Amino acid sequence: MTPDSTIDTIDTIDTIDDVLVVGAGAMGTQIGAAYALAGYRVTTGDLAPEALDQSRDEAQRRLRRLAEKGTFSRDEVDSALERMMYTTDSLEAARTTDFVLEAAVERIDIKRQLFADLDEAAPEHVILATNSSTIPSSLLMDATARPDRVCNMHFFNPALVMNCVEVVRNPQTSDATVEAALGMVHRLGKQPVRLNKEIPGFVANRLLGALRNEALRLEADGVASYQDIDVAARTALGHPMGPFELMDLVGIDVSYLIRLSEYEQSGDPADLPHPSVQKLYEQGRYGRKNGRGWYEYTS
Ligand code: 3HC
Q: Which residues are marked as site: Important for catalytic activity (predicted)?
């Protein structure tokens, strides 16, 4: 393994045509659609056939809407949809892919097993990236025999809309891998943010976390309702949505598991999920995805 080869960089960027996205949740679905729009052939893998059906429907709906709005032509959207495939056997798909982006559940045990299996299945040159913002790739790289080709590529929700992608290297990630990831972000028409070292939460979520923690404290202390705190964020700060609306968009379950994973890594009780978030999680109020979170949703 040669961490810093320029030849690797050119080869890798030029040869990425087929992309495997593992995980057909909200993030995996829209990341896959973004890759397809940029001309990549995309396979979305998930163990659950019903998750794949939902993912296909959602991708079709989102991409057709982009054609209706004129953001992309009907032909561009139709050919992007033709480039999107679905499978319950991600490991089989990994055998013929050029690049893997993992967007599965935020559980380190599951991700480590997945990375070990993907490493067995995927050709040697393939980069294995994770969309996680809380599990840095240094916690996954030693599950593989290719630590130089493992990194984080962190997209934001909703991934078809949000332009930022954080590219984060672990101490063993090669320059070639970082350059290939940055090249892909540019081809997606998105804006890369390059992190030179790992830190839990990376950059954007740390900024967001500071705001969210303060918002949760204000609500729990009875200073203002969550609705009014959201109004303040939107109308005083110009944020597109308030911190409680954003938690519902990202998913209460996702927020909860992210905090739990941060706590597991730091051991700092301050990193535990806030009790209000834990309560919503235990009540199964996951946010927009199931119609109930901080707010109620009718459609
Ligand atoms: N998926 C895809 N596209 C969406 C969408 C979604 N869930 N929601 C909205 N859009 C698109 C649509 O194209 C819509 O246009 P259309 O309905 O006319 O076709 C356009 O965005 C504008 O939507 P709306 O008019 O309904 O509402 P807004 O103007 O408020 O925009 C928003 C919605 C883009 C989600 C905006 O509110 C926003 O930017 N919110 C902040 C999002 C944010 O901060 N994301 C980061 C979360 S943190 C994260 O992801 C990290 C992870 O690790 C947890």
A: 154
Model pTM?
0.90
Q: Whose CA is nearest to atom 12 of ligand 1?
A: 161
- Same-domain status, 150 and 180: yes
257 within a domain of the structure (yes/no) = yes
Q: What is the CATH number of the domain that holds 103?
A: 3.40.50.720
pLDDT at 264 over 90: no
Extract long-range pairs of 125-128: CB within 8 Å, 24+ residues apart: 125/11, 125/12, 125/15, 125/98, 125/149, 126/94, 126/97, 126/98, 126/99, 126/100, 127/12, 127/99, 127/100, 127/151, 127/177, 127/180, 127/181, 128/100, 128/102
Q: Which of 203, 138, 158, 136 is nearest to 58 (CA)?
A: 158
Task: Kindly report, residue by residue over 3-43, the tens digit of the pLDDT.
Answer: 444 334 444 455 899 999 999 999 999 999 999 999 999 99
Residue 28 labelled as part of a binding site: yes
Residue 148 and residue 56 share a domain = yes
**Nearest atom within ligand 1 for CA of residue 249:** 7
pLDDT tens string 273-295: 999 999 999 999 999 999 999 99
Residues 93 and 177 in one domain: yes
To test ligand 1's pocket by mutation, which of 161, 164, 250 has the most ligand atoms within 8 angstroms of CB?
161
Give tens-digit pLDDT for 247-261.
999 999 999 998 998
Kindly state whether residue 249 falls inside one of the protein's structural domains: yes
| CATH for 225 | 1.10.1040.10
| Ligand 1 neighbours by CB, cut-off 6 Å | 62, 65, 69, 133, 156-158, 160-162, 205, 208, 240-241, 246, 250, 254
